[in-house]
TrEMBL record:
It catalyses: alpha-D-glucose 1-phosphate + UTP + H(+) = UDP-alpha-D-glucose + diphosphate. The gene is galU. Belongs to the UDPGP type 2 family. Pfam families: NTP_transferase. InterPro entries: GalU_uridylyltTrfase_bac/arc, NTP_transferase_dom, Nucleotide-diphossugar_trans. It comes from Microbacterium radiodurans. This is UTP--glucose-1-phosphate uridylyltransferase. Keywords: Nucleotidyltransferase, Transferase.
Amino acid sequence: MSQQRIKAVIPAAGLGTRFLPATKAMPKEMLPVVDKPAIQYVVEEATQAGIDDVLIIIGRNKNNLSNHFDSVPELEHNLTRKGDDVKLRKVQESSDLADIHFVRQGEPKGLGHAVLRSRAHVGDSNFAVMLGDDLIDERDPLLPKMLAEQERSGLTVVALMEVDPDQIHLYGAAAVEPTDDPDVVKVTGLVEKPKKEDAPSNYAIIGRYVLKPNVYEILERTEPGKGGEIQLTDALQELATTEGVLGVVFRGRRYDTGDRLDYIKAIVQLASDRDDLGPELRPWLQEFVATL
């Protein structure tokens, strides 16, 4: 299967300013979502889709990321000595997930620039880009459908989700046309964070992409856009008007950890669904809400 040959790229060089001071010395991707850092959910999603080669784009103060995916012999030895097999498996799980590589972005110049930094590692292959702010529930897999559509069509594929029109200014918005598959649309145009009245639709790009290597050539000559950054959306817009881009419409559970309030909601939602936490958490939540 072609999925086995595809590599995943996870940009994780952002400054995380919305979470200061927590992110002053720790990358936002390492903030815990229940009991795992956000980025581990993303790597797990890649491996569950058959990808075993992951490149993480890091910035300064991001050594915690590489440390998390390294083995920790002294900790593993202590847990083994204590006979704590459950915690030992949890510690080993993150270092055994995949073949994980790291490259520094240097100056943070936007998502397009971060993707461009993966060129030497990815080479001439198709690849998936997965943003750590968007956690996709493992019960509602998205990436396998995107990989299958890319293999079938030979086109670039992005993930789309219908959002409240009042929220579209927070996303890249897509102009779309239907196809024979109700879960797949043709993307005819893209606009980065438009005003509500300027948005072509309420289909928002969420943080999953299956890209072809020709995107690198476009990013090389893409001028900085909004915020003085090289926008991946601008490169996708060019592809949409030349060779075509498909959008897979996601209707499952997604957790946004890039915003403080949504981050808290994500923790509550995921913890409530867990067998080890939900039975005690849900009744407490009901009591707590009743007192408000």
